[in-house]
Design goal:
This protein is mainly alpha-helical. The protein has helices at residues 2-16, 20-44, 50-72, 85-104, 110-117, 120-132, 138-155, 167-186, 192-212, 238-264, 267-273, 277-289, 295-313. The chain is globular, with a radius of gyration of 20 Å.
Amino acid sequence: MQSLTARVNGMEQRVHLPDRRSGAALITGSVFLVSASDALVKLGSSQFTVWQLYLVRSAIAIVLLLLWLGLAQQGSPWRSLVCDRWTLLRSASLTLMWIAFYAALPHMSLSLAALALYTAPLFIALLSALVLREPVSPRRWLAIALGFVGVLVILRPTAGDFSGMTLLPMLAALLYAVAAIVTRARCSSHCALSLALNLNVCLCLVGALALLSHGLPSPAQPSLPYNFLASQWVAMGPAQWLLMGLLAVLMVLMSIGVAKAYQIGPSAVVGTFDYSYLPFAMFWSFALFSEVPDARMVLGMGLIAASGFWVLRS
């Protein structure tokens, strides 16, 4: 009996050991879906507002997650909605992250906003060392820095671009890092579907409150001039509803994938592979917007890829 107990305890310990390769693979696949979703949002952003996106996309995502949870278990799927303080902190951090990032975009270039946002892996590595006491070796710090250099090479910001608005996407990066650390430290035992459900409920509520602050939508309401941050409802046709449905499916998959990646992998390693968003974003820019990457973009992608392989092997 004692030997059996020892074997079971040993198995439990191995289950909770960080899995670098699986975490890296999950976050890479997830940020590919994030980049695809962002590309679709860019294509359709003149047809709806960000609060409308939060409300409609997350409402559809909630239905899909409840169906998934209902098929996966017996009883009411709402019982899987985890509402402890750490899960709420995680959802609030991610919701505020997207609000901060989108709020900065009207006031600064997209390249500068993306550069500031992709300081997140550095924040994640720092918080991992300070809060989680995860070992971050000098070689891993160098690998993380190499990925950040790749970001600088791709985005090549100029000093004239910097302003006080730079703090908003950097705040978004810090909020993303907080969510990643909370996922790893306090939500590692939660079901990833439950975490995704909680996040989408939070996004849906924030979108609904923002839209209600402007008044109830009217079917006869005219189209708005382009203002993605306007707290106003824009009438949608079949194409827009179809796009929202596709975005909801992507939201379900990527929110589950990101949660699971930070649950099973070391935060510093998973955070480094978040850099893969930029090469994916350039792919969609070429495929959908005919933007051809130049030599510096290719060099930056090479540095980001080298960073990922280095941190995985260190």
